[in-house]
Specification:
Pfam families: EF-G_D2 (PF22042), GTP_EFTU (PF00009), RF3_C (PF16658). This protein is of the alpha+beta class and 534 residues long. It has 16 helices and 33 strands. It has three domains: 14-187 and 245-280, Rossmann fold (3-Layer(aba) Sandwich), CATH 3.40.50.300; 289-392, Rossmann fold; 399-532, Peptide chain release factor 3, domain III (Alpha-Beta Plaits). The strands form eight sheets. The chain has an eight-stranded antiparallel beta sheet. The longest helix is centred in the middle third of the chain and has 17 residues, at 226-242.
């Protein structure tokens, strides 16, 4: 095993070898391609092309619905585990579409690091920036992969400058590209002083790397034509002088990102990046919880639910709760305490996701992600322990940005609709509010596409056609405060009051002015745009 600062010597080796991370990127930068190459080199798939659906079609709405219908695909893609050298990588998928940013946020609570993929021609794009900000909130270490170097791309210094300035993070080159576009030969591996050449013949193969003794080594000239060699030597010298040196501690603290250049489609630069994740990526981290933190090396098992996916098999109405193991060594069949209900749960059929298959998980260590099939007991934010009343914190629910009223096409089916909506609320797919006045429900989401997905899922999974209409409200806030103060507030503002799926009181309005007024007139209550999931 590599001796790095990320490997705490006090950790059991099984935990120390785990790397749990997500990939963040703007659509089209190459996340799917890179994921596939990770799986290929991790031995989880035999051939590239097994994971991805076809190009553009995949991103159209109809195809998105199809994917939702075919729950198998999106589920196996939610968390994938594979071995790479001495390491176990757990790659957690973040939904790419910006409409699902809340889900993405919660997914990022389950990882210890992120790989940021950018397109060498486009640099830092809007979605990259948003996701980066989320990572920053949690001080997640970030490793950067600059993709598509086989195409015309921007000047290397420009790309690095843009990341430094745009994202306010130190950037240190782990490799340096040689030529661009059709002239792209490969990279000089700055960390290991060797030449990595790209194999253009076989996209699934990695060309041999050539060990050299520094930039003066005559062997370089045997592989790199003079005009590219001069440029390379000059640039690498400049980079070494001007750019910060790799500081592993600073990477772990999220202040510095090493950048690798490559071409995922040509399998180039991917192994170097994987070595980088192994070497500089963090081991499973301490988890914040109440009343105390959870350390990965603790003997007792603890874990928390960060995602719930329902109706994976519509015939059985089952749900899978995705659990990030926070500590200990879990074994199948263990009896864990579901802290919220204080009830024991025997975990007899946990699953792990290995590429496109799901398998029974016989065991799992801190850092791993397992799926627990259940009938609705497990919700986002729930903690499972071996008995201690711990509650993992930091998994928020955000106030929705779009509200619509929702009615069943058939008024006789209102009860069915309630059941369906509550289930989606528990899954985290939408916020559902039941107004204290009138009938029907108010559904809140972050992006408009979610309404469409929700409508089609309710129809598909419950056989219930539904209608979404514009709502008189545009904002929702959770009402917090002492019981008496909240009751007084509720009684005086009935027209604006609703409850969410947990029964918590929510204030609905269309005016920021209203919110300001409440804050002024009711100093004992707080209107909050977030709520801790519990
Ligand atoms: P995403 O998941 O981030 O959205 O990106 P994805 O991997 O789907 O890649 C987006 C497009 O970029 C795909 O082309 C893919 O083949 C291409 N691509 C990925 N990596 C590289 C690379 O290193 N070099 C080059 N030149 N292209 C790359 P597409 O035309 O949308 O799909 P397809 O027809 O190739 O399947």
């Amino acid at each position: 095993m590599l001796d790095t600062p990320a490997n705490r010597p006090d950790l059991p080796p099984e935990i120390a070898r785990r790397r749990t991370f997500a990939i963040i990127s703007h659509p089209d930068a190459g996340k799917t391609t890179l994921t596939e190459k990770f799986l290929l080199f991790g031995g989880a798939i035999q051939m590239a092309g097994q994971v991805r659906a076809k190009g553009e079609a995949r991103r159209t709405r109809s195809d998105f619905m199809q994917m939702e219908k075919d729950r198998g695909i999106s589920v196996s893609a939610s968390a994938m585990s594979f071995d790479y050298s001495d390491f176990r990588f757990n790659l957690v998928d973040t939904p790419g579409h910006s409409d699902f940013s809340e889900d993405t946020y919660r997914t990022l609570t389950a990882v210890d690091a992120a790989v940021m993929v950018i397109d060498g021609a486009k640099g830092v794009e809007s979605q990259t920036r948003k996701l980066f900000e989320v990572c920053r909130l949690r001080d997640l270490p970030i490793l950067t992969f600059c993709n598509k170097m086989d195409r015309e791309s921007r000047d290397t210094f420009d790309i690095i400058d843009e990341i430094q300035e745009n994202l306010a993070i130190d950037v240190t080159p782990a490799s340096w590209p040689i030529g661009v576009g059709s002239e792209f030969l490969g990279c000089y591996d700055i960390l290991r002083d060797r030449l990595e050449l790209m194999d253009r013949k076989d996209r699934n193969k990695v060309a041999e790397s050539i060990r050299i003794a520094g930039l003066e080594d005559p062997k370089l000239a045997e592989h790199v034509p003079p005009h590219l060699l001069d440029k390379l030597v000059e640039e690498v010298e400049m980079a070494r002088e001007l750019l910060p040196k790799l500081d592993p501690q600073s990477v772990l603290e999220g202040h510095m990102t090493p950048i690798w250049f490559g071409s995922a489609i040509n399998s180039f630069g991917v192994k170097e990046l994987m070595d980088g994740i192994a070497t500089y990526g963090p081991v499973p981290q301490v988890q914040s919880a109440e009343p105390r933190q959870i350390a990965p090396e603790e003997k007792k098992v603890a874990g928390f639910v960060f995602k719930v996916q329902a109706n994976m098999d519509p015939k059985h109405r089952d749900r899978v709760a995705f659990v990030r193991m926070a500590s200990g060594h879990f074994e199948r069949g263990m009896k864990l305490t579901h802290v919220r209900s204080k009830k024991p749960m025997t975990i007899s059929n946990p699953v792990m996701f290995l590429a496109s298959d799901r398998e029974l998980a016989e065991e799992a260590w801190a850092g791993d992600i397992i799926g627990i099939p259940n009938h609705g007991q497990l919700r986002i934010g729930d903690t499972l322990t071996e008995g201690e009343a711990l509650r993992v914190t930091g998994i928020p629910s955000f106030a929705p940005e779009l509200l619509q009223s929702c009615r069943a096409g058939d008024p006789m089916k209102a009860k069915h609709l309630e059941k369906a909506l509550m289930q989606f609320a528990e899954e985290g797919a939408a916020k559902v509010f039941k107004p204290s006045f009138g009938s029907g429900f108010i559904v809140g989401v972050v992006g408009p596409l979610q309404f469409e997905v929700l409508g089609s899922r309710i129809e598909m999974e419950y056989g219930l056609p539904v209608r979404f209409d514009s709502s008189q409200f545009t904002s929702a806030r959770w009402v917090k405060g002492e019981r008496q103060a909240v009751d007084k507030f509720v009684n005086a503002n009935k027209q604006h009051i609703a409850t969410d799926h947990d029964g918590d009181v929510v204030y609905l309005t269309r005016l920021q002015w209203d919110i300001d007024r409440v804050e002024r007139d009711y100093p004992d209550v707080t209107l909050s745009a977030t709520k801790e999931m519990m």
